[in-house]
Amino acid sequence: MDFRFTGSPPTCELINCGEPPFLRYAIYKRLNMSDPNIFNYGSNFMFDCQLPYIATGKSSSGDRTVRCQADGTWDFGNLHCEGVECPLSEKIGTSSRPLPDTAFMSNTEIPFLGYEPHKAQMHRSGWCGREDAFIFLSIDLQKVYVLTTLRVTGVGGSGKLQGHPTRLQLFYKVAFAQNFDTYPIEFNMQSSNDNDIYSFTLNPTIRARYILLGVVEFEKNPCLRFSLAGCEFQSADATKEAKYKVGWNDTLPICVDSLPPVFQDCPEKPIYSTLDKNGQIVPVNFETPKAVDNSGKVAWIDTDPPNFQVPFFVTNDMNVTYTAYDYSGNSVKCVVQLRVPDNQPPEIICPDSYSIFVDEEIPEYHIVFNQSTVDVKAQDPSGLKEVFFSPWHATLKLREYVSVTVTAIDNFDNSNSCMFQVVLQPSPCQTWTLVAPDRSTKTCTSNPGKTGLKCTVQCQTGYRFLDNRSEKSFECSYGQEWAPSFIPIRLIAENPARFKFTASITYPISGVLNANCLKTYENVLYALMEKVGGVLSQKCSATVEVLVQTLEITTSSTSDTVSRVISNVSMQILPTVANEVFYNLCSLTLGTMFDMAIPNVAAPVAPLLNVDMEVSSGCPSLKASKTTTFSGFNCSTGEVLLNFGERLPKCVLCPPGTYRKNENDCVQCPLGTYQDESGQMKCKECPLGTTTFHHGMVNSTYCVAMCQNGTFSTTGVVPCRSCPVGTFSPTNITAGFTTCEKCQNGTFMVVAGSKSSSMCRKPCDVGEYSWSGLQPCSQCPVNYYQPNTGQVGCIECPSKTYTARPGANSSADCVPIKCDKIKCENDGDCEVLDHSIRCRCLPGFSGILCEKTENACLSQPCFNGGHCIQKKDSFTCQCPAGSYGDLCESSLNECKTVECHNGGVCHNLPGVNTFECLCRFGYTGERCDIVWNPCEGNDNLCRNGGTCKPFYFGLYKCLCPTGWSGPHCEVNIDDCAEQPCALNATCHDLVNDFSCDCPRGFTGKRCETKVDLCKPDPCRHGQCVDKMFSYYCLCKLGWTGVNCDTGIDDCASAPCHNGGTCVDRENGFECHCSSEYTGSLCQHPVDRCVGVQCLNNGTCRSGVKSFECLCEDGFYGTSFSRDC
Fold it and tell me: Where would I find the EGF-like domain in this sequence (predicted)?
């Protein structure tokens, strides 16, 4: 077997040390990061340090050049950076040397009681200055200090005053006699939290004893608390002073409370106002949320809206925010969601119902209903969740309508609906709206002034209009209807009237007739007429040949005083010459024979007058006692008889849109009815709730809906619109409303589409309200009034007044509240807010009457085990040995006698003889005297089986196994980079390996082996062809499918017509036809007229199962025979 190399040719790559690790405070000179070969073997750079740090140590080559070595590491040797010792700033004015109260002064000689200048220290209650042209606080620090930090906060809480500065200016000097110098930077504080603490680093530092803080801008009041930090200045020597230019950029951080208070009972769900029996809102009441703090005491709780108290009359959804603060400026909010229960539906107004007029004749018209196509106005104070249309679309034919209901749902699932209707109508005065009936011709032109149309409709021969005219004219003006009415026109065909002779024969009988005898008599009389008919025809044919033919025989019985059988024998007289003389002559002849008063003439009809019955029939024989005859031209049911003067009468079927009122009149269907058939005796009623616009409607599509209860239109039919607000449907009718009635006797309503007067309500009285302003109503709550009637809400009294009881109807009911009812203790001030009295307390006091002294030690303000001692409005901390400061927050500096090796820095800790060496990177141990090995105890440093190799200063290198690379052996080498898979197959990288997703038809490690896709043969009824990546089956006739396994059904398309049965054949089909049809597809009816010859020039017409002879005028025959 032959083999070959694939992929890229092997190469030797230059060792790369990677980016050098960063050593603290170091500078790498001659290191060009843009050079692609910067990290290769042989590269180097100079090691130096940032000022004021000094480079110490050497590389392995004995210099300060760091080189990339053959083992892939950088040679740092023991190079590192060392710095100078930095003095620490500390708080000024600590408890070991406290500042006296006299060291503080402000811009006013009369300070606010409780907010004196000496209380401006951070651990006190705070100072508030009086507004002036220049507001300041001055402090004598008692000694000269180098100051490094200024911390400032405001004054918050439940006391009389709150506020904080938003912009400060710092002034300073060393000696009292000097002028103040201005610090070059102003200090800005933008928070709205009065207790937020701001720490400002003084860069540059300043040397000063006297400090003046100027309040340039403030929020609420010019109130503040502050502290200063720095180093005590020992000498005025300039070189000594320069020492402090190298040092820490700030004081050591202090421990402050970072945890905000916690509300224990803040309601998570909304609180809804309750409703009274009338559904009106009553004032909301709930438990005020309580907060706790990790310090032991919450400084104060603020509310938004300010001074919010329960119970509270909520008229709209609102949030009440309770903010709890601690003395470190941390805060937490509790938001109480007050909601008005929304049980009122949204307001929704639909457009008026309307008609869509089309200028062209179209089969249907599609309409879509949504807020972009329909002008629906819907709103709700809570917002709308959904507005939907039902139906959202419609397809209308001419004169059809659709009722659309629009429903609005608010965010509380209240819903309200309105309705409008749309009718599709043809535009007036269009030629196509005047429908020309069959057997007619329509001709239209513009009228002389071209302001409308004029059309003439001409009937074909043998047809005429209902009014017996053969031509009619119709006119219309543009935008107006046709005159005469545009009712669809119907023509009537003329049929010859038949001459009917009827003989009514009365037979007296005795006894009771058998139930079957009447039918038996009819059969006997029919049989007798077969014999008598020929004799009667001969008697009438004296002048011209006349045929007398039996039409109908009916038999009935009566039993009033005498039992009788009455038979009506109807015959048709058919002379060969259509002349009224021959009809009348035959009628006279027949009448004479049936006249029993004339002797010796009844012989031809004697069998009809004396009917002999067989005994076996069980029916008595009949003997006539009386005869009556009737004759004349008449028509069938639904036809009317029309006389044409000298011509013979004609029979006309009453056309659609009419009914037969009597034998001579077809009458148009009245309003509310229609008739879609010819020759009917009455009209059909429109469906319930519908009617017609005009008389003579020809189908149910002309039945339009009437306006129902709560709606109206000028015509009483669609399109209808809802009764406007303040009106309702009359009660004297049930449908077809054309007007709406107004509420009477000073009553009103607020909804549209009302169906009765029961929705009319009286307005609310003074001192009352409701959501609609109409009854039922509720009284205005306490501290509210309403002087007008029919109102939806009440007016709140001024904040410093109240009402004695609910239902106030005048502003005079709002009575002022006076402070003489309570006495505030401990110099608290009485104030009236939100219709109630309260005391505003000085700092350190609380309670309804300021009668409680607050325990400042509850917040545990002393650090390092200091003991808190409560004072009247403040506290002091008694510090243990080794600690000092206002809060015992500072410790003696143990680092003065401690040496931390290898550039480590000593950190003084609270307590006696406590410190910590902060070692630089690469060293560890109590005094930083142990070199740190990063590979020890850190098994996960080098991943995927890599080996860790340590170097100086915490540096290390990972030696990676085959298949891995990267600083921590975290990168899997891409074995797919050489594209080992043939045929563009997808390669999957594995660890030191790869796999290929081969395309169909190939296999092997690299997809190099071809697979025969035709083995085993997948084609069941065909031949397989391998197409490299797929196969294809060549199917035999009659088979299909991917694998030629599906037989072709030639009958699937149902090719046989007229009920023929399809039989599937291989590559074809065969139709088995019924006896009525023939042809390969059963498409041809069998011709029943083959071999048939109708008599007297009759025409044969083939039917589905038989034939029929159509006789010429003057001949007749029976169905399915050759007779004519």
Answer: 815-851, 853-889, 891-929, 931-970, 972-1008, 1010-1045, 1047-1083, 1085-1121
